[in-house]
Each structure stands twice: as C-alpha cells, then as structure tokens.
Amino acid sequence: MKIISAEFIKSVYERIQCPDDSRPEISFLGRSNVGKSSLLNSLLQRRKLARTSNTPGRTQCINFFLVNDRIYFVDLPGYGYAKVSKSMRSEWGKMAEEYLADRDELVLSIHLVDSRHEPTTLDMQLHEWLVTNQKPHIVVATKADKLSKRDLQKSIKILRSKMSESLVIPYSSATGDGRDELWTLIENSVKNK
Ligand code: GTP
Ligand code: MG
C-alpha cells in the first residue's frame, strides 16, 4: 500500500466524539505495551505519528488517524496494565467495548499479542469476545524480531492452537516483517466498503 497521507485526527473519550463520515475503520487492540502504536507507525511508515513509549498504559483514549483520506486507523488504549486504578481499568472495558460492540464503520480489528509470551487471560478474554460476537479480526504476534526463527515458529504454533478460529500472523515493527501481508488483509477488508 502506498501511503500518500497519514494524519492524526483526534483523541476520543466517548463514543459520541467518534468521526461520523462513514469511512471504514481498522482498530488496533491489545494489552498495554504490546506494540500497538509501533505497529500503526510501521504500517504507515511514519516514525512518530502514534506516540510510543516504554511506560505502559500511556494511551488512555481512542486515537483516530486518517490514512490516504480513505481509512481510519483506530488506536485503542492497552488493557491489563496493573498500575492503573481499578476504576480506570473498568473504564477501559467500557470505552473499548462500547466502541467495538456496534460500530458500523469497523471493518476489521487487529488483535496484537506478544510473540514472546503465551497469551494472557485478558488476551484470551478479548479473543473469545471477538469470536463470540463474530467480529472480523486478525491476531498479530508482535516483536517477532526478538525471537529466533525457531522460537518464533514455536510461539506462532501455540498461538494458532489457542486461537484456532483466527488467522495469526507474525509481525515486527522494528524490521517491517509482516507488513505486506497485513496490508493485503487490511485492503481486502475495506474493499467492499
Ligand atoms: P500502550 O499505548 O501503552 O498501550 O502501548 P503500545 O501497545 O502502543 O506499545 P508501543 O508501540 O508504545 O511499544 C511499546 C514498546 O515496545 C516500545 O518501547 C517499542 O519500541 C517496543 N516495540 C514495539 N513493537 C516492537 C517490535 O516489533 N520490535 C521491537 N524490538 N520492539 C518493539
Ligand atoms: Mg500506544
């Protein structure tokens, strides 16, 4: 995909603030620090469009980015960060579920999981929610560059068995491995919109 333009549009704290121009949306979901913002920057070939950090739990709102004036990339806050308060944690669930549950514009969710670890309980909960609610989604195993080829294969195999209903692909935002495949999947999902 040739990126002609990619711009930050806005941060949203409530559903009502979401854009209402009917462009298709691709959402990025996953636990805090898993690499959502990095994946977004990697797909868009912009180094600092979405803010990345070593401090987990940074992104606390839903961020909308407009790509080629045609698709919104939607960066959701990360879940599972222990240090945020309980009320904040339930806020996450509420905000994310409200967005995910019945957003007509949402054509594909990209669920990020860390390729170096087995999926967490929260990863599995989100996965099951996506499957049960029949939400089109792809599982992306992030930080693939941090594993040897052999360990990566092993890890992908485990993910594929635990998330057997879903397509699982490895990705590295550091090297761009997986980028073409993921873009093809994204383009296919927006084609009919
Ligand atoms: P929150 O917004 O806090 O939920 O985090 P996030 O999921 O957006 O993660 P972010 O993209 O900020 O990445 C977290 C850390 O992991 C940063 O230090 C990134 O540089 C690093 N990281 C992300 N993706 C990769 C990758 O593919 N390879 C390597 N080596 N590091 C990565
Ligand atoms: Mg982020």
Write up what this structure looks like.
The protein has 193 residues and is an alpha/beta fold. The protein is 33% helix and 22% strand. Strands 1-3-4-2-5-6-7 form a 7-stranded mixed sheet, with helices on both faces. Strand 5, helix 3 and strand 6 form a beta-alpha-beta unit. The two termini are 17 Å apart. The mean pLDDT is 89. Bound molecules: guanosine-5'-triphosphate and magnesium ion (MG). The site of magnesium ion (MG) has 5 residues, from helix 1.
Identify the strand order in the major beta sheet.
1-3-4-2-5-6-7
Which residues form runs of ≥5 with pLDDT under 50? none
Tally of DSSP β-strands = 7
Mean pLDDT: 89
Structural class: alpha/beta
How would you briefly describe this protein structure?
The chain has 193 residues and is an alpha/beta fold. 33% of the residues lie in helices and 22% in strands. It has helices at 36-44, 86-101, 121-132, 149-162, 179-191; strands spanning 6-12, 25-30, 62-67, 71-75, 106-114, 137-142, 167-170.
